[in-house]
Design goal:
single chain; about 450 residues; alpha+beta; Chloramphenicol Acetyltransferase; 2 domains; six-stranded mixed β-sheet; about 20% strand
């Protein structure tokens, strides 16, 4: 693997970063205690270093290039040292998950060093035969959510064993002619014209969707540069029961749960519900199955979360209808597809226009809500079973909350990342997510009256 230019969207994410707004994704993977004496913390730490070093993408760093002007490229770090990237941190005495989530939030505050390959792994805890966790940090320029899962999966026993097997060689493929096919060239030209036209349509939608009322709220407070992490766990079987009863997709239900949780949380704070529902950016992958593409391939939908609706089923119905409209239009249309504009911009525009673009995010949406797909098979590290994986998304400039969800082992794991000063009560929002989900399930499957409350589950 030699030198590879950053794709336009990757370059955009690279230049969107500031000290107060690091642009890395994260995941907190929690493992059960080791089944025997073999999986000591030192053994797990060495496994992490060996397996991370074996992933070619994790040896790449970003360097500026002369051409195109303003561009950058991935190049192999000739001085790569995995010990700079994989470290162990201790958890203070007390409840392990409380200490691990607090540490993860603090570690997510810290930007990745830009002169090195932009990733970091932390082994959290693991002493005295107890549970441990691994915090993964990958710069958004390196990968979107799906690509991050593919890269990060290399640490697990099952993936490491599969990649260690020799790959069978197929029949030789005859070399292609270097001369361009006129028909292919014509197709590329027509495709380029179509892309420009689509970008113009997206740009017009962005202008129409922009909001001028930028008064600060709890979700859009000025950044303090601090980070907090809170988690919630939902029953994936209950999620399917709700889906069978109400229709729609699992993602529709989870978005409605986030809307209801925000309503609960605001009420618990004594806040008046906002006049306009908070708007979520819901990322959508543009990856094609079976096509290996590095970097980011993203678009998104915009969704007004119906916190003003009192009935959970009404919130779900509203979300379903809005998402159906988004899907009918497709991921390459509308203001949510603003990421596709990156492909039409010159590298210099990303380099010098990133601060303007970052500040404009607040005009389009208030928070990010994203779902990250995980492998369905059971995973382990050094023989220790993976019990939960909480994904974490970066915060856009001027925003205080990002919600990420993933399903594994019969549970939906929710990772909430927030500005630490703007949302010091993030744990209460996580409790509201669990409580809202329990109420919706009871209402849909158990005949609970709208407005009645169920005991909030212990998380």
């Amino acid at each position: 693997m030699g030198t590879e230019l950053l794709a336009p969207l990757d370059l955009a994410f690279w230049h969107l970063e500031s000290d107060a707004h690091p642009m890395h994704l994260g995941a907190l993977a929690v493992f059960a205690p080791p089944p025997g004496p073999g999986a000591t913390p030192d053994h797990v730490l060495e496994l992490l270093r060996t397996r991370a070093a074996a992933v070619p993408r994790l040896r790449m760093c970003v360097r500026d290039v002369l051409l195109p002007v303003g561009g950058a490229a991935w190049t192999v770090d000739k001085d790569f040292d995995v010990h700079r990237h994989v470290r162990r941190v201790a958890v203070p005495d007390g409840d392990f998950m409380t200490g691990a989530t607090r540490l993860a939030g603090e570690l997510m505050e810290q930007p990745l060093e830009r002169g090195l390959p932009p990733w970091q792994l932390y082994l959290i805890g693991g002493g005295d035969g107890g549970p441990f966790a691994v915090l993964v940090k990958l710069h958004h320029a390196l990968a979107d959510g799906m690509r991050a899962v593919a890269i990060g999966a290399g640490i697990f026993d099952q993936v490491a064993a599969a990649t260690a097997r020799p790959t069978p060689r197929g029949p030789a493929v005859p070399p292609r002619s270097r001369l361009p096919d006129p028909r292919a060239m014509a197709g590329l030209a027509l495709g380029r014209i179509g892309e420009v036209g689509r970008a113009l349509g997206v740009g017009a939608s962005v202008v129409r969707a922009g909001r001028l009322d930028l008064r600060p709220t709890a979700l859009t407070a000025p950044s303090s540069g601090t980070r907090r992490l809170a988690t919630a766990d939902l029953d994936a079987t209950a999620l399917q029961r709700i889906r069978r009863a109400e229709g729609g997709t699992a993602n529709d239900i989870l978005l409605a749960v986030v809307a209801g949780a925000l309503r609960r949380w605001m009420a618990g704070r004594g806040e008046t519900l906002p006049g306009a529902d908070p708007r979520a950016l819901v990322p959508v992958s543009r990856r094609r199955p079976g096509v290996a593409i590095t970097g980011n391939r993203l678009s998104a939908y915009l969704l007004d979360l119906p916190v003003g609706a009192a009935d959970p089923r009404e919130r779900l119905s509203t979300v379903r209808a809005a998402m159906d409209r988004n899907k009918a239009a497709g991921p390459l249309k509308g203001a949510g597809a603003v990421a596709v504009l990156a492909d039409q911009l010159h590298p210099l525009a990303h380099r010098f226009g990133a601060p303007l673009a970052a500040n404009a995010a607040r005009m389009l949406f208030d928070l990010l809500v994203t779902s990250v797909p995980l492998p369905r098979s059971a995973l382990s590290l050094g023989g220790c079973p993976l019990s939960a994986l909480y994904p974490m998304a970066p915060l856009a400039r001027g925003q205080s909350l990002a919600v990420a969800l993933s399903t594994y082992g019969g549970r939906v794991h929710v990772g909430l990342v927030a500005d630490g000063k703007a949302l010091p009560d993030l744990d209460r929002l996580a409790e509201a997510v669990a409580g809202e989900f329990a109420e919706l399930e009871a209402l849909v499957t158990g005949g609970l009256r709208p407005g009645a409350r169920v005991p909030e589950p212990v998380t």
